[in-house]
Amino acid sequence: MKLEEIPVEVLPGVGEQKKEALAELGIHSIADLMGYFPYRYEDYRLSDLTEASHEERVTVEAQVYGQPSVRWYGKKKSRMTLRVQADGVPIQVVWFNQAYLKNRFRVGQTIVVSGKWDRHRLQLIADRTFLSESEKEKVVGRLEPVYSVNSKIRMNWLRKLIHTAFTRYGRQIEEILPEELRKKYKLISRASAMYYLHFPKGKEEGRQARRRMVFEELFLYELKIMWLRRFHRQEVKGLVHRFENEKIRAFINQLAFPLTGAQKKVVSEILSDLREPIQMNRLLQGDVGSGKTVVAAIALYANYLSGYQGALMVPTEILAEQHASSLKKLLTPWNLQVVTLTGRMTAREKKDALGQIQMGLADVVVGTHALLQETVVFWKLGLVITDEQHRFGVKQRAMLREKGEVPDVLYMTATPIPRTLSITVFGEMDVSTIDEMPAGRQPVDTYWVKKELWPRIIRFVQKECARGRQAYVICPLIEESEKLDLQNAQEVFEQMAMELAPIRVGLLHGRMSSAEKDEVMRSFANNEVQVLVSTTVVEVGVDVPNATVMVIYDADRFGLAQLHQLRGRVGRGGGKSTCVLVANPKSETGIERMRIMSETTDGFEISRRDLELRGPGDFLGVKQSGLPDFKVADLTHDLRILEAARTDAADYVNRKDFMTSPETRPLYEYLCAQNLTQTSFD
Ligand code: ADP
Ligand code: MG
């Protein structure tokens, strides 16, 4: 029988109650139990006291010299001391509230104690004591696994249970990785790796065990992705778009600027996907300002030429309107009808738009998630594009995709994700990257200044406005309870309005109605207002080329990706632009972040360093990230292994004899057991 099929109740001591308690931890079978790895180890290997530093945790062997003396503080609290000699040093061991040990010491006896070493007082504050040989044997000299447990399960009981499982069933653990791979990376066997992950004798053994299991975990994950991809490519019939290259070329030649090399490259990748009878599932990433909109327009045009409708979904109303207006400029001359659909259109306007969409009069529909409503029925949807795709959940993406039969899908994002990470998060997608900025773009000068220089910043803004330029001043949302010098956008606004008069200052914040927000945005876009004080609403996508100054107050409260997005709001016109980060960061990381921002304007470089600082979960926001929950692997450190695993996985699934060869049979069986008929998995 397979270990997956043997229930934990076969082990001694697992009755109905324990069975349920284990189930709460996700442990049902012997395989689950063996795969329930510790999250850390307690080190009970003997240390040398003469080398231990102050306050270090140590485990020492000691000879008892005297008799313990106990002092009581009330009925329950006690302090017991005992003179011993350890590593040739006479020291005192101190136990708090463990007076029950009092009668168990004899002069000359060798005991082992673990605890915190007070080097100055030559005292060891003991938290664990091993007196008998049998107690010593079990733990001393080892790394003891620490598991996450619930209130119904004691740690020691679980340790023993896992140990028993290995004693009885350890030999039945089957290898899953092909011999070839194990040789290539010098990986120890699955059985030893699993055992040593629980019960390593030393660091090296633990390291080898972990390396092997990390590889296995990432390899199997990538294998699933590669398998899905292969399946998707071979089985899902996508729309075939037919359009003439000549017409696309004419469109491109009419643009106000030549495409960058990177834009040309991604355009041809996208157009070739459109032509193929496969369903496009492509991520288009490019830094803020790299020119994704025009790429989207070209794809929408090709889709239109093929006789289909296209949809562009964006996260906010302001953005929907901006996109609609830039797409109109690009597409109306070529007779495309661009229609907007947002949540706050009047019932009448909506009805109108819906009618046009359903009858096929609308060639391109731009909207917020209002596009997902059931009432939206397309005549013939052939291409779906989402902008800032990480803001939409996986489910919303799927809903939009289901609006047509098998429309091609393009996800655009300006959050640059390091390649290694994107292949995990967007594993089953193809990725196109615009890694080049349009010519003539000047990088935004970035300065980090302390809050004390605020008056000078105000003068700087004043000077820029006098030259006809405009400025953004961004403030983070701040909880009411926090008392800071300038508390929120409202206060910054009032102060600036006063000091900058007659320069006109506008205020934009999250509690305003959409209509009010739009009004303010519009007057800023028309240069009726020169300075816009705002919470992060301008973060995404808006385009005001005349704005050349970006001041970010309390900049250390923002993530790097967000700061980068905000900075991308300026430097869009020809003028030299400046970003001022105002912050008095308290933490090392805060300081490091400000440094990174002032040193580079390359979004990929920033995201790489952000990833180092924060780890992938935080980096993308755990909920949004779509990152699988790995048991052993940690993507902050194991990205290199992930890359290797991915290459190998691709190689294996594409082998002709993958399903039949005895070497890869366990892998194929693993895939079959995974229920890969659903397209999502974790
Ligand atoms: P993003 O990738 O951030 O969405 P946009 O598509 O908004 O960037 O483009 C930013 C600005 O750059 C727009 O004003 C656009 O017209 C301009 N632009 C795009 N491509 C080019 C190019 N190849 N040469 C010059 N300007 C370009
Ligand atoms: Mg954009």
TrEMBL record:
The keyword Chaperone does not apply. Its EC number is 5.6.2.4. One of its GO terms (biological process) is DNA recombination. Residues 273-434 form the Helicase ATP-binding domain. One of its GO terms (molecular function) is DNA binding. It comes from the Bacteria. Belongs to the helicase family. RecG subfamily. This is ATP-dependent DNA helicase RecG. It comes from Thermoactinomyces mirandus.
